[in-house]
Specification:
CATH superfamily: Lipoprotein localisation LolA/LolB/LppX
Radius of gyration: 18 Å
CATH topology: outer membrane lipoprotein receptor (LolB), chain A
CATH class: Mainly Beta
Largest sheet: 14 strands, antiparallel
Order of helices and strands: HEEEEEEEEEEEEEE
Strand content: over 45%
CATH architecture: Clam
Number of strands: 14
Structural class: mainly beta
Number of domains: 1
Distance between the termini: 27 Å
Shape: globular
Number of helices: 1
Length: about 250
């Protein structure tokens, strides 16, 4: 998923789908590899090409091996002040909260609401959660290429215990470093509903990092682009910054 960092590794054509899935660094859309603050652009693209740009800041850290993230929208005015908190749990799940400034309150995101649009984008709240290879069964499909890059293709079917609207995912994983370059999401009727593309990949400290990604909805023709502007490493982020109450105090 987006902003994923993978350790370079040699391709192994004997790997099973399960083994490939476990080699992908398991991270959620807004999770970073380094504790700190990330500034990014979120661009909403209508079917007719009209674009709306948003400025977003993300605080991320790991505590006791679990990821904690706060997402804040800075512009434009209609979403400024909106804030989202995600806390990993030891059981592999997560707690999610959102603060809506027009309502002046913070509420928890739970149940089927997690399948709804994340602040009007083509990402669902459930897409924000940390990905675990143990959440699905995996089958290796025929190898393919993304551009000139050889790729493994893995079909992942969520287990019945995992609450999701997706019946399966297909992921193209670059063989040279296990970076996922394309993911297709299929709905309850087996129909392709969304595709996530890694559009820009850069080497940072000797590791490949996805710097820009695009999620496309095949049902609406709408798309969302996320692009990193800046990353500031910080190890001093306090516990108080990662609480539901903190969302109301930017």
């Amino acid at each position: 998923m987006l902003f994923l960092v993978a350790a370079p590794s040699r391709a192994d054509d004997t790997l099973t789908g399960e083994q490939i899935a476990k080699r992908i660094l398991r991270t959620g859309t807004f999770e970073g590899d380094v504790a700190g603050k990330t500034k990014l652009k979120m661009v909403l693209i209508e079917k007719d090409g009209k674009q709306t740009e948003r400025d977003v800041e993300i605080l991320t850290r790991r505590k006791d091996g679990l990821v904690q993230s706060v997402v804040r929208f800075r512009t434009p005015q209609e979403v400024a002040g909106t804030a989202f908190l995600m806390l990993d749990k030891k059981d592999g799940g997560s707690e999610q909260y959102i603060y809506l400034p027009r309502l002046h309150r913070t509420r928890r995101i739970a149940g089927r609401e997690r399948e709804g649009s994340f602040v009007g984008s083509d990402f669902a709240y459930s897409d924000m959660r940390r990905i675990s290879a143990e959440d699905a069964s995996h089958k290796r499909l025929n190898d393919d290429k993304i551009g000139s890059d050889p790729a493994y293709v893995v079909e992942s079917v969520p287990k019945k215990s995992v609450k999701t609207v997706y019946t399966k995912l297909e992921t193209w994983v670059r063989k040279s470093d296990y970076l996922p370059l394309r993911t297709r999401f299929y709905g309850a009727d087996g129909k392709l509903v969304k595709t996530l593309y890694a559009r820009k990949v850069q080497q940072v400290d000797g590791k490949p990092v996805i710097k820009e990604a695009r999620m496309e909805s095949h049902e609406t023709g709408h798309a969302t682009v996320l692009a990193i502007d800046n990353v500031e490493k910080r190890e001093d982020l306090p516990d108080s910054a990662f609480t539901p109450t903190a969302l109301e105090h930017p």
